[in-house]
Amino acid sequence: MLPADLLTLSTNEPVNLQIYHALRQAIVNCTLLPGQSISDKEISEHFGVSRQPVRDAFIKLAGAGLIQILPQRGTFVMKISPKRVLNGRFIREAVEVAVVTRAAAAISEDDLINLSANLDQQELAARRKDTARFLSLDEEFHTAISRSIDCIEAWEMIEDIKAHMDRVRYLSLGEISPLDLLITQHRAIFEGLKSHDPERTADAMRAHLREINLSFDPVRERNPDWFEAE
Length: 230
Prior knowledge:
Layout: H1 15-28, E1 37-38, H2 40-47, H3 51-63, E2 67-70, E3 74-77, H4 82-106, H5 109-127, H6 131-148, H7 152-161, H8 163-172, H9 179-194, H10 198-209, H11 211-222
Antiparallel strand pairs: 1-3, 2-3
Helix pairs in contact: 1-3, 2-3, 4-6, 4-7, 4-8, 4-9, 4-10, 5-6, 5-9, 6-7, 8-11, 9-10
């Protein structure tokens, strides 16, 4: 049975992508649990659409390693893959360091104002202990940097790659990776951009993305049933 608070369709994206993003978010934030069964019939009824866009979303989710489609048996949420987490971090770092290096030289004052406002909202979410809101703002922060150099494709390219990494990050929020620490890392990236210093900005982004190297083992020790065996 689907959770009652699963997102509704409301954006201008194609329906299949809206469903993909809704289900991806539900898996990342632990609304849909590892091993849980989901069906195209139930999801199509939930969203009030035909089964075809749901099946398209399933294919994309399977490609990201978030679900497994077993003919005649059903579709199930996958456990977290340690290999995908570590490979995803490696690829994401390569892409995002390249993005912020270019952004440090080209970012506009308006983009910096928007990033500063986003950071203020992150701090508010942290004070309220609203992790869902914080994660949304985190996504917006990184997306905005790609958009500042007119290369949103860079962020879209790593969205699937970082899916397992995002699941670990969600489980790490709080005691293992305090929100205040992540905000401090975001502010270091912002200050590098503001000073138009490519090297400083790249170093700040690397430090931020490598945080998961420290949190991965503690998260896996606390949640062993969530992870695939290596």
